[in-house]
């Protein structure tokens, strides 16, 4: 009988690591389904969109897909992460089946293609609305003792709750910081947003967007988000958390709805290349996308980009992307009295909370007259983790202005840990699954030093050796359970080269579980479709670290 060995090389940058025991089969502890299901269960795909990763040349991927479907057209060239996507006349399942057959029969081709995946369906985190929001807010929060600020200052409890005015008194308003609002587009003609935008991008049409135009092609959602981040402080209407920051609209919900993971990745990359430092994401859905994971990891590593994302409005404890990708700031929704809203998604992945019940007043497009909160002015009350997220994005804009002025270097990990450590604890003491580390506090974030920990970037590389022949191990699912209950669980899936980046995570001890997915073209035995385990410890550090682990399945 054949002897099967699986070698796993773990390469870490800014990380030192050690292995405390030999990897072993642990199927009695975690089943294959437990490792795979969390990031695949209930995921919906967009038919006829195929994303192909390649090793060296984009032409290898193009020629492969065109040989299967000559009528396929290219949607996005993601050369920074070595991927390209297509609109096909065949279904994703048909294209994938034929690609796997080619890979199985052509070893040279296997060395050129790194993965094939669909685009998953994702959705706006729809706002929670209450027709009586104005009356309810008036009875609980409205006060005549407030200092004069914006026209509707009395309704802006969220801005006050996160201590934005105290940050302004310190001299920080978000000046010089660009926030990408990855959403439905933004109405740049709104009085509170005129002059607040920079050029944006519409991936669906490959179109650059003028700052002064109305780009709300996908609805009012993005305009409401933008107002909470950076509406002008001019005494009219409302004001954002960071009124001197700039908004960069990236339209991913267009006239056709969600445009696809591939075009979202293209939008992310365009924004990073054009100066965005913060990426505000009030949307998401099921399904782990290698394309999005690699794009976010690339931007965090190469551009120091900071990703903020809504936890979701499902109330349940669930995995949701992009909020659950490693390194992303995952935001829950808090109430005016510092509770957590009934709808806010719970979980070990929550980083912080921010104001997000149904009484968040912000800008809506001028065309959206049916939602004007007083029947006359272009503002509306929305609620949801979609509304909580821009409070955090705006706060980070204030913080980055300060750090840039003081020429303090930082990592996305440090920003995430800092806003968590300076948050006001509003639920159970310390970390909890409802509010994370608490409701964010801009004043504390601006008056305390960043943590010294810079975080860890872990890069897994998986191999399989069969009868002395060594192959990259395709589609390895990984779950990293930290031994500390206050840290997130991290999930991932390698490409067909066995590569998986886990970027911007906490140092500590992790129990790592692995399971092999579709290894059909390597004809691996069914016995490999079980869970395997090892324990690693990751530290902050400056020295690259490499180690090889072997899994021995006997003879």
TrEMBL record:
Endpoints of the signal sequence: 1-20
Catalytic center residues: 183 (charge relay system), 221 (charge relay system), 386 (charge relay system)
Source species, domain of life: Bacteria
Membrane-spanning intervals of the chain: none
Domain Peptidase S8/S53 positions: 174-438
Pfam families recorded: Peptidase_S8 (PF00082)
SUPFAM superfamilies reported in the protein's UniProt record: Subtilisin-like (SSF52743)
Coiled coil: none
Protein name: Peptidase S8
Species annotation: Pseudothermotoga hypogea
């Amino acid at each position: 009988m054949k002897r099967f060995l699986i070698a796993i090389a773990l390469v870490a940058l800014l990380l030192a690591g050690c292995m405390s025991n030999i990897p072993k089969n642990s199927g009695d502890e975690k089943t294959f389904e437990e490792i795979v299901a969390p990031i695949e269960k209930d995921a919906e795909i967009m038919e006829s969109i195929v994303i192909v990763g390649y090793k060296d040349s984009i032409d290898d991927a193009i020629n492969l897909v065109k040989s299967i479907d000559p009528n396929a057209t290219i949607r996005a060239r993601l050369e920074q992460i070595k991927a390209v996507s297509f609109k096909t006349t065949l279904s994703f399942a048909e294209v994938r089946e034929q690609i796997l057959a080619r890979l199985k029969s052509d070893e040279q081709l296997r060395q050129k293609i790194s993965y094939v995946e669909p685009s998953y369906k994702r959705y706006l985190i729809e706002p929670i609305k209450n027709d009586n929001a104005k009356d309810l807010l008036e009875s609980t929060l409205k006060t005549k003792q407030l200092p004069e600020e914006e026209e509707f200052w009395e309704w802006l409890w969220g801005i006050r709750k996160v201590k934005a005015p105290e940050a302004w008194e310190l001299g920080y308003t978000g000046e010089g910081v660009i926030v990408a609002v990855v959403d439905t587009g933004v109405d740049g003609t709104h009085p509170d947003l005129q002059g607040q935008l920079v050029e944006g991008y519409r991936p669906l049409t490959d179109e650059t967007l003028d700052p002064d135009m109305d780009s709300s092609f996908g609805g009012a959602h993005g305009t409401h988000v933008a107002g909470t981040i950076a509406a002008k402080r001019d005494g009219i209407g409302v004001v954002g958390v960071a009124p001197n920051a700039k908004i960069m609209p990236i339209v991913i919900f267009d006239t056709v709805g969600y445009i696809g993971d591939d075009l979202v990745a293209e939008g992310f990359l365009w924004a990073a290349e054009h100066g965005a430092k913060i990426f505000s994401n009030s949307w998401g859905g099921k399904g782990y996308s290698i394309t999005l994971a690699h794009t976010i990891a690339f931007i965090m590593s190469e551009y120091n980009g900071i990703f903020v994302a809504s936890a979701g409005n499902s109330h349940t404890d669930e995995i949701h992307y992009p909020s659950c990708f490693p390194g992303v700031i995952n935001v829950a929704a808090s109430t005016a009295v510092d509770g957590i809203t009934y709808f806010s998604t719970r979980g070990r992945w929550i980083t912080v909370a921010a104001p997000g019940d149904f009484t968040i007043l912000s800008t809506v497009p001028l065309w959206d007259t049916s939602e004007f909160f007083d029947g006359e002015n272009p503002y509306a009350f929305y609620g949801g983790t979609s509304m909580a997220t821009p409070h955090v994005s705006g706060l980070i804009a204030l913080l980055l202005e300060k750090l840039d002025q003081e020429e303090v270097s930082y990592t996305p990990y440090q920003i995430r840990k800092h806003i968590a450590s300076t948050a006001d604890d509003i639920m159970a003491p310390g970390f909890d699954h409802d509010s994370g580390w608490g409701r964010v506090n801009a004043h504390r974030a601006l008056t305390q030093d960043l943590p010294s920990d810079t975080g860890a970037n872990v890069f897994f590389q998986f191999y399989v050796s069969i009868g002395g022949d060594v192959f990259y191990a395709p589609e390895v699912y990984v779950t990293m359970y930290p031994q500390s209950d206050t840290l997130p669980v991290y999930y991932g899936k390698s490409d067909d080269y066995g590569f998986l980046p886990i970027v911007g995570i906490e140092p500590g001890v992790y129990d790592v579980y692995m399971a092999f997915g579709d290894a059909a073209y390597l004809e691996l035995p069914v016995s490999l479709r079980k869970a395997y385990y090892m324990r690693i410890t990751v530290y902050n550090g400056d020295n690259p670290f490499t180690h090889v682990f072997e899994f021995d399945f006997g003879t």
